[in-house]
């Protein structure tokens, strides 16, 4: 049997946001590998082995999945949102790169709806013009790099989406981000805190930078900060397509 590996995104939570392509490969899979809460979204069935694993073991998980595929299994690695956005696709290729034995494997990455796009859609169109995305976790990069990129994005007047804004292990970082934004942007700049988008727990809250507090974000929140042009249209937040 010829094995394969598919690295898929399950979207932000709602079943309707899982692509038909991803549903299709899950139906053919023999094995599903991923972080516990994402594997929990896969319905068990005969012939399917589920391998839920803890966070922060991405390299082990990737090697396990590649080894299963090399042995002829049909393996799906699941991420939430899109697998290429702060998720498993890069983790898999980090393991593939130094292992020539894996270079000829049948591997494909299947996209998903990433959190910022689901959040932006729920809010209106805050990312409707140029924007950038920053992972605020300093697990895998120094804090100085986060600040440098943040300042560059402010200087470029990008709208921004922040992933992993705040966790129990890193309670301070997001407060520092808000301080930095407060020093460099106007106080009326709009910020949307989008939590658990597309799940029953969804909440969406837009405030000005002056009103924003670190406690408004947690690990289930993606934070969207507008550019200087981002504004309200009734209940909606949007960034116009043209800038002066
Ligand atoms: N691959 C994922 C991101 C993984 S990083 C994606 O493409 O969406 C985990 C971070 O994603 C969380 O800390 C949060 O910032 C964001 N996130 C994931 N799902 C979310 C959801 N349903 N609502 C809001 N933010 C979400």
Structure characteristics:
five-stranded mixed sheet; single chain; Cobalt-precorrin-4 Transmethylase, domain 1; binds S-adenosyl-L-homocysteine; Methyltransferase, Cobalt-precorrin-4 Transmethylase, Domain 2; 244 residues; alpha/beta; 2 domains; 13 strands; five-stranded parallel sheet
Describe this structure in words.
The mean pLDDT is 95. The chain has seven helices and 13 strands. Helix 3 (58-70) packs across helix 4 (88-96) and helix 6 (143-155) runs parallel beside helix 7 (173-184). It has two domains: 4-113, 3-Layer(aba) Sandwich (Cobalt-precorrin-4 Transmethylase, domain 1); 116-238, Methyltransferase, Cobalt-precorrin-4 Transmethylase, Domain 2 (2-Layer Sandwich), CATH 3.30.950. The protein has helices at residues 20-28, 36-39, 58-70, 88-96, 115-123, 143-155, 173-184; strands spanning 4-9, 31-35, 49-53, 74-79, 107-110, 124-125, 131-135, 159-163, 190-195, 203-208, 221-225, 231-233, 236-238. The termini are far apart. The chain is α/β, with parallel strands linked by helices. It is 28% helix and 25% strand. The strands form three sheets. A five-stranded parallel β-sheet has the order 3-2-4-1-5, with helices on both faces. Strands 7-8-11-9-10 form a five-stranded mixed β-sheet, with helices on both faces. A three-stranded mixed β-sheet has the order 6-13-12. The chain is elongated and about 60 Å long. Bound molecules: S-adenosyl-L-homocysteine.
